[in-house]
Amino acid sequence: MQSSPLVSIITPSFNQGNYLEATILSVLEQDYENIEYIIIDGGSSDNSVEIIRKYADRIAYWVSEKDRGQTDAINKGFSAAHGSILAWLNSDDTYNPGAVSEAVEYLTTHPDVGLVYGDLNFIDEKGRIVGTFAAAQTDLRRLRRGYVHIPQPAAFFRMADWQKVGPLDPSFYFAMDYDLWVRLAKITQIKYKPGKAWANFRLHYGGKTIVADDRCWPEMLRVHYRDGGSPLSAIVAKYYIRKIVSPLINWKRRRMFNP
Length: 259
Description:
It is built from ten helices and nine strands.
């Protein structure tokens, strides 16, 4: 790699002590050295702060204080970041080896691309792979129709573009990443690099994908209508289909933890 740009990775955290150390180690053990790692903890009452302090000498910045939730924590982290490439990794997810170096290499050799993403595994509480995310190439038109296909933990984007479209909307609980992808797709190219899982998304009983999945699509519709979308569009149809099938999807997910 001809250059080694600084990559700022943000981990928002709150009471995820069961998984936080695995998240931290997956960042610190990357083969790419020029990483600025920032952890924003929301005032956890479990052993999270103890875990963070264990690695404090390898963390560029961390804080543990009450905040307004995950979106607010991510914004706080990016406001403290100095890297030209950004990403966030939630405190129950992990990177796979080589993820950061591959993302940097792609963005370095494709200066017209503002966001790149790889594949993603779903893992269970013990880190076992239980499925894969349906990642695929998308663009603004397809995003607006509800075809997202961007796995957030496996996505990396440029600070210069974040400064044009950020911060995340703190009113979003679930779809703040979808909102960001739409905003980025309006100003830059987004590209899917298939072939390797860059990250792992952990499904567990306390995760919001399990307990609050029904909040995602209504928030996506907020983005759709904000940008002048029609009530007759594909994303609206997908929302109603999702409402019908979501009980079955959530039942299957819960069976993973209560077989």
